[in-house]
Amino acid sequence: MSRYSIAGKEPGYQIDLGYDNPLQTFFAQVWGPVEESDDEEEPEPVVWVGTTPQEIKSIADLETAIAAYGTLTPALRVQLYEDLVAAPGSSQLQRAMWQWMGSEV
Fold this sequence. Notes:
By secondary structure, this protein is of the alpha+beta class. Helix content is 30%, strand content 20%. It has one domain (4-33, 43-101).
């Protein structure tokens, strides 16, 4: 799995994204500004995509999913493509896991 962090368009926003080979999907988490509070709850991402098998199959789809919060640089697009190409194809075990999770293979 690859993982990169980029700054969002607005101050205080961060986007974590990459390629998850076990799920064979690109993913992204958009984190908003951290608000001060008395409780110790973990912050929730504003956007979280790429959590199911083959949910986001292309870099273009990933860009669309985060477009309101940030953009990918050309260098990051190239790196994500290289991550995708370097990842091995789905194994029989991965396909069995997806079926167990109720996802189409």
